[in-house]
Write a structure and sequence with these properties.
Elements lengths: L1 H14 L5 H28 L3 E4 L6 E7 L3 E6 L6 E6 L3 E5 L7
Antiparallel strand pairs: 1-2, 1-5, 2-3, 3-4
Helix pairs in contact: 1-2
Keywords: Membrane, Transmembrane, Transmembrane helix
């Protein structure tokens, strides 16, 4: 709904002939930046609630699921000192566990 409103405003701005070209492109640039920030915030919220993956052969090492493909999982270890991103093949996965927060 918000994205539809933003797209509608962008269309109105570009169809309005009385606005200067520089102003149109400036508003478009600001809109693109705001949409990017909103998209990143949504992705961060999804990542915070993402399930954990446990890898075979690693004791108590859990990774947050970022993306899942047919044969791989892109996972993030946010508990280590460095943020570690791994590609884990499907046959290396021990289990996937979703933790339910009390706010849900």
């Amino acid at each position: 709904m918000i994205i539809g409103g933003v797209l509608g405003c962008i269309l109105i701005i570009f169809l309005e002939k009385s606005l200067a070209k520089v102003l149109r492109f400036g508003i478009l640039g600001i809109a693109i930046i705001l949409i990017s920030i909103f998209n990143a915030e949504m992705k961060f919220g999804q990542l915070r609630d993402a399930p954990y993956v446990y890898v075979k052969g690693e004791l108590n090492e859990k990774y947050r699921v970022v993306e899942i493909t047919q044969d791989q999982v892109i996972a993030l270890n946010d508990k280590s000192k460095n943020l570690e991103i791994r590609l884990i093949k499907a046959d290396q996965i021990k289990k996937i566990v979703a933790e339910v927060s009390p706010n849900q």
